[in-house]
Amino acid sequence: MKGRLIVILIIFFCLKTSILWGITIEGPFSYRINLDTPVKRIVSLSPAITETLFAIGAGTKIVGATIFDNYPEKAKLIPRVGDFSNPNLEKILQLKPDLVIGIVNIHEKLLIKLLNLGIPCYAFKLYTSLEELYLSIDILGKFTGMEKEAKELIRNIKDEFKILSEKSKKLEKRPRVFLAIWDSPLTTVSKKSYINELIEIAGGENIVSETDVFFPIYSLEKLIKISPDIIIVAEGEGSMGVSKERLLKVLDGKGLEAVKKGNVFEINGDIIFRLSPRVLEGARTLYEIFKKWSEKEE
Question: What is the mean pLDDT of residues 222-251?
């Protein structure tokens, strides 16, 4: 009798825990995700998602990631399911995930196939604003049962951005900035992208404004005419492969003041192109560049 009572109490406790935790989240493509327990096996199709999961303490739940997921160091040990833009369906299925998370614009077709196979999926839109970062942290916290950690992380990031914004307002001069992500054709970042927010928080002004494209092609003639104070080169694995040395070969001898004065700087593309908590590091790096320029211009 006593043993039966214990079993009943355990079942009741489990059901109560499930009811208290259970969540329903609107997923991609008008699909609702119903979860009674936190997910335990996640396949992440984006380095930004992987970094965010680690940041809230849920990195151990990732059983599959792309070949570009390289941060933090432990992320390099996760089994690979292909590259960012073309993950392998068979490899994903072999990992038996209880949730696959991707990016709407990139992974729509793959996620629909997985949904049709009965695999729960979710997709984020990670391009427009920092609000999308906070939303992704919040939802990943709910998926993994790390809601408290997620809310704390969001609060800390917002606080740190506020502190940085106040510091940048004290700069003597606000530089006009051009951020290059490719040299042939010359490609940049518009004000439509969240990266524009990072530039503004850091104390700069993005010169590219007249387009609805996230990463527009920009003519060399227009760049010469506007002549930005600072040119930023986004290099590294998070970029398209351009470097300061390579870009300078295109810009040398064109009369750009930023080139003449040595105001062409490199930044790690990973810390600005991945909408993860590390964009705070990206904004801080931009601030240091703008501060250095401002002090030199005094």
Answer: 83
> Whole-prediction pTM value?
0.88
The string of pLDDT tens digits covering residues 138-174 is 999 999 999 999 999 999 999 999 999 999 999 999 9
Using CA atoms, how far apart are residues 125 and 269, in angstroms rounded to an integer? 19
Residue 236: burial class (beta carbons within 10 Å; 0-12, 13-18, 19+): middle
How far apart are alpha carbons 6 and 281 in whole angstroms? 51
Range with top average pLDDT, 23-37, 212-226, 265-279: 265-279
pLDDT of residue 237: 57
Counting Cα atoms < 13 Å in the Cβ hemisphere of 168 gives 25
d(CA 91, CA 76) in angstroms, rounded, equals 17
Distance CA 192, CA 197 (A): 9
The DSSP line for 54-94 is HHTT-GGGEEEB-TT---SGGGGGSPB-B-SSSB-HHHHHH
Residue 147, CA distances (Å) to 135, 158, 210 in order:
12, 17, 39
Which tokens in the block code for residue 141? 């916290």
Contact 207, 226 (CB under 8 A): yes
SS3 of the chain: helix, strand, coil, percent, to 5: 50, 15, 35
- How large is the average pLDDT for residues 86-111? 94
Omega before 185 cis (within 30°)? yes
**CA distances, 249 to each of 102, 192, 218, 242, 243 (Å):** 37, 28, 17, 11, 10
